[in-house]
């Protein structure tokens, strides 16, 4: 599989969120910058140290592509996941009623009241911190555009697609700046895709990555907030509407998962698609074959909802299942989703299990 400028056999990575060092969260100096240098030297040092610790865990485990870990200054990685972006764009105010979005029913929902434009860099500070800490290929994660648009109380644009195109333009500017500063891969986290895609999501994604000189991946999520699987909140069955986490009747609709994103994703100008296999098993791999998916596939083979660390042999077995559907030259391996809900020592051990399991299968392939 192509990673940056090299071909790597079964490259390893983690999806995104990783437990922050305990000393970082909640501290007054744990502040992510609004602009390139709009923060003090103490906060900058703390951010670089926190990112460096997360990079070290990945390198120590033997991971090939180093992820940012989503260090957002101690903010909740899910409940307020939109803060990071709307505070760096014009046209938003940080208030509005909650929106019952699939998977994350407590998601903060801001209001769009004007033209959306990029005002401050989204992830440049993280990229610079991670680049100081590693010489390996680097992957930076962005919340998906459909997620941002769906979770916005839109009071300015005529339709959701128009809002999404404005966000895509802002992302495009940001991605080009990241590419110019040495980022190898950008990953979009689209966790509402499994609940159905319309006629504009792929168009908007392609606009965001148009002319960007780095690889683009999409991670689509089967659910991970507080360790829960995917669900669609049913406001009629909940006392507090969208604020209630996964309080649903047994008849509530479940996500279609991989079947919902095909064949749409075939038209995305991305380099790789990623979703979980470790917890759910190989059934979701069938659409890759049924719809003739020809791009690279990064398979999640580490169950992030279990505190039990897989053995290297268990991981190797999951990888062999993936190779029955996708040839080895187009396969990468990752965690199912972010490791944020696990203790850091467990998260680190799971990364090591991933690397060790991949090493077993690499030897088998080279021997063959």
From TrEMBL:
Cofactor or coenzyme needed: Zn(2+)
Superkingdom of source: Bacteria
Domain Cobalamin-independent methionine synthase MetE C-terminal/archaeal: 10-192, 259-355
InterPro entries: Met_Synth_C/arc, UROD/MetE-like_sf
Entries under Pfam families matching the protein: Meth_synt_2 (PF01717)
Listed CDD domains: CIMS_C_terminal_like
Record keywords: Metal-binding, Zinc
Protein's UniProt name: Cobalamin-independent methionine synthase II family protein
């Amino acid at each position: 599989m192509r990673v940056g400028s090299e071909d790597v056999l079964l490259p390893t990575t983690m999806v995104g969120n990783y437990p922050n060092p305990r000393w970082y969260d909640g501290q007054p100096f744990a502040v992510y910058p609004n602009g390139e240098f709009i923060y003090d030297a103490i906060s900058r040092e703390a951010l670089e140290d926190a990112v460096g610790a997360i990079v070290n865990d990945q390198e120590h485990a033997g991971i090939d592509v180093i992820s940012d870990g989503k260090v957002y200054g101690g903010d909740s990685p899910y409940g307020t996941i939109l803060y990071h972006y709307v505070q760096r764009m014009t046209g938003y105010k940080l208030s509005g009623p909650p929106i019952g979005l699939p998977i994350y029913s407590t998601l903060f929902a801001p209001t769009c009241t004007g033209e959306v434009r990029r005002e401050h860099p989204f992830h440049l500070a993280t990229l610079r911190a991670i680049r100081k800490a590693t010489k390996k290929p680097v992957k930076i994660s962005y919340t998906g555009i459909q997620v941002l648009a769906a979770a916005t109380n839109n009071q300015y644009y005529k339709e959701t697609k128009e809002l999404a195109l404005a966000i895509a333009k802002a992302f495009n500017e940001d991605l080009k700046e990241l590419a110019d500063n040495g980022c190898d891969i950008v990953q979009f986290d689209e966790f509402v895709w499994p609940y159905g895609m319309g006629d504009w999501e792929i168009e908007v994604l392609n606009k965001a990555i148009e002319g960007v000189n780095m690889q683009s991946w999409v991670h689509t999520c089967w659910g991970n907030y507080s360790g829960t699987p995917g669900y669609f909140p049913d406001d009629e069955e909940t006392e507090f509407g969208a604020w209630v986490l996964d309080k649903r009747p047994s008849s509530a609709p479940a996500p279609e998962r991989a079947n919902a994103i095909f064949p749409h994703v075939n038209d995305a100008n991305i380099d790789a698609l990623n979703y979980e296999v470790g917890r759910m098993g190989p059934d979701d791999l069938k659409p890759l074959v049924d719809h003739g998916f020809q791009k690279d596939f990064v398979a999640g083979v580490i169950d992030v909802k279990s505190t039990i660390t897989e053995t290297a042999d268990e991981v190797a077995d999951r990888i062999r299942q993936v190779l029955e559907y996708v040839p080895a030259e187009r396969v990468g391996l990752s965690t199912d989703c972010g490791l944020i809900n696990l203790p850091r020592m467990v998260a680190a051990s799971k990364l090591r299990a991933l690397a060790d399991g991949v090493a077993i299968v690499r030897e088998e392939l080279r021997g063959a």
